[in-house]
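User: Fold this; tokens only.

Assistant: Input:
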Amino acid sequence: MNRAMESKGCHASPSTMIPRHLLAAGQSQRTKQRSRVKEISEQLVAMIGQPFDSRKVRDVLGSLGVKRVSGPGAFSSSEEVIWIPKASVRIDIYQAQKLNGLTGSNYPDEEGWFIGSVQFLAPGSDDRIKTPFPGPLPMGLAIGSTPQDCIDAHGRPDLDEEHDRPGFSGRVLAWRKQHQNIAVTFAGQGRESTMISHTVCLIGCVGAWRYTHPEVFAP
């Protein structure tokens, strides 16, 4: 940098001080990292309806620092929740008979446990969750997306409810797709609204809602 530039208050930007080939390499690496993280939610959603394999789930979440994913306990009932707080993910698994009863499907008993639901979470959804799910969600969304962002991505919701009750104030949006439900929960109202959970599940797996809103959640 010459004295004329210094006297005019001009300063070289960081990018002009780094060789172009190093900048390109860094940008390429960041693109690959974003792509890898982006695939996480899509890969987990693709497992819905498939036999549960804790090692496959661990491998998908490995880039988020997950080293172990637990399986169903020895004395589990016909359904189990697999919490993965390190990745801010919850997976609901079911034995075939239970899942068939919920969804009207015909999963074979010999396959053991099946994934019925995947949830991507943020603080406020459960005390186990300390940080938001870090990667992009399907359809180009993210935990930071607004209700309108979700509507723009998925279309007019089949359920749009605001709740104001002890312990929770917020909004729930849900869609019924061909084989799956998508349910997104926001805490707070208006501009203060923040996403705390993004659920994708087989139709029939959203607990009590299958009775209160059968047109959306019942098979």
